[in-house]
Amino acid sequence: MRVACEVCGSLLDVIYDWNRLEPPTSFDFFERKWQRRYDPHDFSGVWRFYELLPFTPKAQIVTIGEGQTLLQPSAGVGKYIGLKSGNLFLQYEGMNPSGSFKDNGMSAAFTHAHTTGAKRAACASTGNTSASLALYCSVTKLMKAVIFIGSGRISYGKLSQALDYGALTMQIAGDFDDAMARVKEVAAQEGIYLVNSVNPFRLEGQKTIMFRVLEALRWQVPDWIVVPGGNLGNSSAFGKAFAELKEIGLIDRVPRLAVINAAGANTLYELFEKRGLRWNGGRPQQAITDTFYGEMDASDRRASTIASAIEINRPVNLDKCLRALEVMDGVVREVSDQEILDAKAQVGAGGLGCEPASAASVAGAKLLVSQGVIGPEDRVVCILTGHQLKDPTATVAYHTTDQEQFNKVLGSRGVKRAAFANRAVAVPNELDEIVKAIRLYS
Ligand code: F0G
Fold first, then answer.
1. 357 in ligand 1 pocket by Cβ < 6 Å?
2. Which residue, of 132, 165, 178, 397, has the fewest CB within 10 Å?
3. 150 CB within 6 A, ligand 1
4. CA atoms of 332 and 278, how far apart (whole Å)
5. Do 64 and 374 contact (CB within 8 A), yes or no?
6. How far apart are CA 399 and CA 111, in angstroms?
7. Backbone phi, then psi, for 91, in 5-degree steps?
8. Cβ(293)–Cβ(364) under 8 Å?
9. Counting atoms of ligand 1 from 1, which one is nearest the CA of 126?
């Protein structure tokens, strides 16, 4: 499967001829489909929007019931961020079958893979893409999953999924960036279908996250979409979604975009905010990126963050993300592991919970409010990309009373405090003592 242009090397993009396709002229069209949710195509939170991603005949669609997600208003987390009550919404993608937003894009890429007759599909992953691919393979039995992961780099929740679902799991002695480079080579040499977000169909599926956000807001466009940035597939997809909705006349304005990097994997922040890299009409200044990557290689700088899902230094969708930042008048910020874990604890206490990378969106929104970029009156949607149970190690280490465990897992990442820790109370196995402790603490 070809994912890049043979002449310029840029990633391919899916482009529709909207004049010919005649997309719906009102959002009611999609709402009516919900009445037909006995049909798996209309049950799916991805394919319910088929007319906005019509790259394949309907009969070819592969769905496992992805996209049943929730836009949760959260007063507690909104207050933590500094927003007026009622203005924060958490888009919880952890409700997907494999527990992360990846199922939106996987359903689309898997559908395309199936139309090509592929029998094997591969990806490099920080854990969620691989869990998603493994799940689609195990449920449908249409393909064999071959996954590449950095050794010791993915959380146990995600690794356990890949193993349980029966994926061929290649642990590369290296990190995600190494695994990504290798999987491209292997896929090309062995003719294996590649489902990383270099695959343009992945992004088509991920557009639907924005459609569901709009649907939950009764089609009112929010002021901000805040999303963690790793390989930059989501942010790229969101920009494409809004550009297309505007083009076909379903919305008249687009929200602003904030992409949040972890400080230990901050390529986009560095390039966009510090070095002025821009979309530039489709010709981003390659020299800026080359210089930065050259410096990174010279100092052997590796991505490093507790938010392992976004521990990526060479985001494959960099250019498309620049386009999204242009379309959505976007900004990029970086947040520390300390800020990420504190925000995650807030999401756990007042939202539906999430994994560390997801909480970067909340930490980033807080930072942007403190900088006056996001106003307290703005309506803000933070994307919670992955389920809380994906990375229990980080969560337990944050809340632990065991200083050694805290230091090992978090102290080594520069995390000093756990301001919102909910520590377990150790009690002897005696009724009186247990009751005494409950009375003391409740
Ligand atoms: N949040 C989570 C939970 C993720 O798993 C990822 C990416 C991101 C955010 C970043 O999204 O790449 O679209 O910018 N995980 C990939 C993986 C890289 O292999 O599972 P992005």
1. yes
2. 178
3. no
4. 12
5. no
6. 41
7. -90, 105
8. no
9. 19
Q: Which numbered atom of ligand 1 lies nearest the CA of 312?
A: 18
Ligand 1, closest atom to CA 236? Answer: 13
- 274-291: average pLDDT: 97
Q: Using the 8-state DSSP alphabet, how is residue 419 labeled?
A: T
Residue 317 Cβ inside 6 Å of ligand 1? The answer reads no
pLDDT band at residue 326, thresholds of 50, 70 and 90?
A: very high
Q: What count of other Cβ atoms lies within 10 Å of the Cβ of residue 426?
A: 7
According to DSSP, residue 60 is labeled G
Long-range contacts of 281-289 (CB under 8 A, 24+ apart): 282/323, 284/318, 284/319, 284/322, 289/318
Which among 132, 196, 234 is the best mutation to test ligand 1's pocket, defined by most ligand atoms within 8 Å of the CB? 234
Report pTM: 0.97
Question: Is the minimum distance from the CB of 303 to ligand 1 under 6 angstroms?
Answer: no
Query: What tokens appear for 107 in the block?
Result: 């359903």
Residue 125: its pLDDT value, please?
96
* Helix, strand, coil abundance in the chain, percent, nearest 5: 50, 15, 40
CA 64 / ligand 1 centre spacing (Å): 20
pLDDT in tens, 192-206: 999 998 999 999 999
199 lines ligand 1 (CB under 6 A): no
How far, CA to CA in Å, does 77 sit from each of 71, 225, 258, 381?
13, 15, 17, 11
Measured by CA distance, the residue closest to atom 7 of ligand 1 is 309
Cβ pair 367, 333 in contact under 8 A: yes
Q: Kindly give the number of the ligand 1 atom that is closest to the alpha carbon of 355.
A: 3
Query: How large is the average pLDDT for residues 170-182?
Result: 94
Q: How far is the CA of 231 from the centre of ligand 1 (A)?
A: 6
CA distances, 148 to each of 58, 172, 194 (Å): 31, 7, 11
Over the stretch 214-235, which tens digit does the pLDDT of each residue have? 999 999 999 999 999 999 999 9
Q: How would residue 422 be classed by pLDDT, with cut points 50, 70 and 90?
A: very high
User: Which residue has its alpha carbon closest to ligand 1 atom 19?
Assistant: 125
Q: Is the CB–ligand 1 distance for residue 236 below 6 Å?
A: no
| Three-point CA angle 242, 63, 196, nearest 5° | 60
